Amino acid sequence: METTIAAISTPLGKGAISIVRMSGKNSLNIARSFFQSKKLNYSKIEPNKLYLGNFFFENNKEKCFMVFFKSPNSYTGEDMVEFQIHGGILLTQKILSCLLEKGASLAKPGEFSQRAFENGKISLDEAEAIIGEINAESEGELKANLNLANGKLKDKILETQNKLTEMLAQIEATLDYPEEDFEQSVKELIFKDVKLIKNELENYLLQAQNLKYINNGVNIAIVGSPNVGKSSLLNALIGQDKAIVTEIPGTTRDIVNESIFYNGIKFNFIDTAGIRESEDKVEKIGIKKSQKSIETADIVLFVVDGSKNLQNSDEKILEKVKKFNHIIVVNKSDCTRKMQNFENEISISAIKEEGIEELKSKIFDKILSSNIDFNQMMIVNERQADNIKESNNLCKNILQKQQESMDVVAMLIKQLWNSLGKITGQSENEAIIDLVFSKFCLGK
After folding, report:
1. 237: helix, coil or strand?
2. Between these two residues, 19 and 382, which has the higher pLDDT value?
3. Are 125 and 148 contacting, i.e. CB atoms less than 8 angstroms apart?
4. Which one, of 75, 237, 250, 54, lies nearest residue 149 by Cα?
5. 79 contacts 25 by C-beta, under 8 angstroms
6. Residue 300 to residue 255: CA distance in whole angstroms
7. All domains of the chain in start order, with CATH
8. CA geometry: angle 357, 358, 363, nearest 5 deg
């Protein structure tokens, strides 16, 4: 790579510090044109040292810091220079313009990290983890991406690829020395190892079942007849008075969305309009949205008033809700109960906030396929999950070829090696690499 790239690496806006960075063999020469410090001799510059000086531009000077990172000990693996200047949109853009006018090219989104990948500083899954860390909204999502950034998945995948390479070497030896007994014993060892790899991949797939909820949260629709306590329940769940609560039926006419975090997972609550027969045009629109939310939610909380018998309107909603993942929430446990018992119920008092933590726990246990150990989580996005599925299917295919020749087995093992390589970037698929880095922000 001959080109030296430059970009602003902090969000544009007013703040204490903005960072403008360059990467490429000409970084230091370009920096020399603008930055001067009494303690800096460019011919003897010390890498990783913060120099305080002045950036001269347009008959002005900006007092700032400069640091030089020497190849290969930098983020990109190339020579890098960073300027830490006072935060401000115009000033930051001026500094960047100076660097571009002196020969640097404006970096494309993700180009710094792509160079880091191409220079062997990070793997493809570690690059995706960086995106995940930046975009993480929940504690669980952040922990999972931090594990990935620390190379947990990469190390496991490389270990498996090394095992596959050993298998190919063993197969090559059988082709060179085609004694029948030797070939059979090697075959047995290879299929035994492939089975172990398959078991490990299936463990990853179990983790991946919860990906949707870790990355996007759980969508929870609160539905029921008017005046059963849906809005009071939302307020109790989020710990704030967000939804309007009155004794007048039909108060909630549109969807109200609020989120909280529970056990590292984002809970997205959707308070809906009370479902009933209505001639009010606005309320009818809200009721239609409520009915739609039942179909699209990950889980439905069907709220009933425990101090009354089940009403006809409740029965109609229950028939619809039964077809979906749901919990029946019997509200008003602080009153004498008249409501019948249900198989899948939890009793709460929204007004007194009794049973609310138990309800949150029940939602978590019902929606998540297994206990999540975020410290062990390795798969963090659908692309990785798809590659694991593909690799697992190849393992199944290999295990069905025990009567085939070693040439056929070797071909499938090579396919498995390449399939796993798509996760870390240890393959030749440039389209995947370009796709990953296109998701980065400018300057990263």
Report:
1. helix
2. 19
3. yes
4. 75
5. yes
6. 14
7. 5-107 (3.30.1360.120), 144-210+378-425 (1.20.120.430), 215-367 (3.40.50.300)
8. 95
Which tokens is 161 given? 């690829």
Q: Share the mean pLDDT of the chain.
A: 83
- In the predicted structure, residue 370 carries a pLDDT above the cut 70: no
Give the CA distances from residue 165 to residues 77, 162, 172, 413, in Å, rounded to whole numbers and listed in that order: 28, 5, 11, 9
Contact between residue 334 and residue 309 where contact means Cβ atoms under 8 Å apart: no
As given in the structure block, the two tokens for residue 30 are 């370009």
**Identity of the amino acid at 240:** Q
Residue owning tokens 């949707």: 212
**CA distance linking residue 339 with residue 337, whole number of Å:** 6
DSSP string over 258-291 = EEEEETTEEEEEEE-PPPS----HHHHHHHHHHH
> What's the token pair of residue 118?
């191409």
CA-only gyration radius of the chain, Å: 30
Structure tokens at 268: 């997205």
Chain segment 1-38, per-residue pLDDT in tens? 579 999 999 887 788 899 999 999 999 999 999 999 99
C-alpha distances (whole Å) from 23 to each of 54, 79, 97, 215, 324 are 20, 6, 15, 32, 53
Per-residue confidence at 427, pLDDT binned at 50, 70, 90?
Answer: low
The conformation of residue 340, written as its DSSP 8-state character, comes to P
123-132, 237-246, 285-294, 356-365: which is most confident: 356-365
309-331 b/e (C-beta count within 10 Å ≥ 16 → b) = eeeebbeebbebbeeeebbbbbb
Backbone angles phi, psi at 289, to 5 degrees: -65, -40
Residues 6+ apart with CB under 8 A from 395: 194, 195, 197, 198, 201, 416
Tokens of 242: 């967000």
Contacts of 181 (CB under 8 A, 6+ apart): none
Nearest C-alpha neighbor of 218 from the set 157, 298, 319: 298
- Confidence class for position 248, pLDDT limits 50, 70, 90: very low
% residues pLDDT > 90 (the chain): 38
Q: How many CA atoms lie within 13 A of 296 on its CB side?
A: 10
Q: State the average pLDDT over residues 214-221.
A: 85
Among 12-21, 173-182, 336-345, name the one with the lowest average pLDDT: 173-182
